[in-house]
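The instructor's notes for this session suggest beginning with a concrete chain rather than abstract definitions. Hand out the sequence below and ask the class to guess, before any prediction is shown, which regions might be ordered.
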Amino acid sequence: MNLFTRFRQAPACLLSLLAALIVCGLMLGGKAFADDKAPKAKLVFTAKNGNVTFDHAAHIKRDKDCKVCHDKLFEQSATAPLNYKPAMHKTAEAGKTSCGFCHHAEGNAFESKANCGKCHVKS
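After discussion, reveal the predicted structure:
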């Protein structure tokens, strides 16, 4: 007796159970893909001296490995604090933390000193 014949002879309750398991598996698989969302292209952080727009797409283009920043430097959340506040620019650059990990003198990106307008934009 082949598998197809056995399957056709299975009780209806087993077939219903199998169908339910398949549907649940598909739903859970779909959920896993839905949770794996693409990052927002731009994030805006409010600041007294002008809001900072973080261009996520540009940073991803430069460094394709998300682990460089997440979760070592930043929580992977749109609502997580940036932790790069006034008087923290020098501290972050010296300790190579937060944005200062790359944005420091001789770093992979421009330092904050004399470059306020590159990040802070008043509306």
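Then share the key points. The first helix runs from residue 3 to 9. Residues 3-35 form one domain.
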